[in-house]
Amino acid sequence: MRILLTNDDGINATGLKVLETIAQDVAGPSGEVWTVAPAFEQSGVAHSISLVHPTLLSQQGPRRFAAEGTPADCVMAGLHVVLKDTPPDLVLSGVNRGNNAGQNAAYSGTLGAAMEGALQGARAIALSQYFGPENRDLADPFEAAATHGAAVVRALMDEANWTASGFRTFYNVNFPPVSAAAVKGLQVAPQGTRETPSHSVAAHVGPNGRRYLWANGAPQQEPMDQGTDVQANLDGYIAVTPMRADFTAHDLLNDLKIRLG
Q: How far is residue 216 CA from its own chain's centroid?
């Protein structure tokens, strides 16, 4: 098996090292693990791509490349340049430092990479590690992902529906904010909606007298509706959500046709 890795935290991120271990386990001794990751952190860029300027691609080592672009750029670089003649069997993105559940999914470069993989016709999975008071001070706060990640990826590869027609499915995996031993199992859950926005900005005046805006996050430990990805994680379960790059509100199509005559 040949696996392409990327992330949005950058090529030197701890979570990418965790993902490399997961991928090597899944690929097996005869498999290949390739990495094309952002040269610098690209958190919050969602599914953006570099349309108006070129992307520098440099080789960092055997099967390891850094791109001065977004996670989606990295996936395209991997598929169309690095592995052009030997396409991967799977694209893995992560392991993100922090959850990509609820509204966070809309901002996530980790999910943007998996979405691009699906749009390019590849099987793709995004993996993220929820942080909270039960795991952030562990010697390895990625412990849950590191311990259970390979099994989840194998289960999805073997059992999930990888729809080939229309918008292809990709999968969003969030590991709970607990130790590996405290993980209760796996739940398939829809993307939830927190009552408060995930992000805001605040204005600050810099030393040069100019006003700058700094992004702020919202609390990540607030409970929400049962059965959602966020609540599954807060309850100690790995949350798996099937996703597609289809933004159509299908449930409103007929209603809108009637309203607009």
A: 20
